[in-house]
Amino acid sequence: MKKRKILIPEPKSRFVRVRCPQCGNEQVIFDHATFPVRCFICGTQLVKITGGKAIIYGEIIKILG
Prior knowledge:
The protein is an all-beta fold. The protein has one domain (11-64): CATH 2.20.25.100. It has no helices and five strands. The strands form two sheets. A three-stranded antiparallel β-sheet has the order 2-1-5, with no helix packed on it. A hairpin with a 6-residue loop joins strand 3 and strand 4 (55-56). It is elongated. The model has no long low-confidence stretch (mean pLDDT 89).
């Protein structure tokens, strides 16, 4: 008998490092955010919630995890 591959499901959501378009501050946010995320430094809105995957206004620097 052949061994079957055991598929482990991976989550579709990720944490991403985003750069603020106004001040250049980098912070880590969740890409399926359920709450509007603002920049810690200048207060610019970085994420618009949509009920699913959020719309990210800043530049994505790195996808974490």
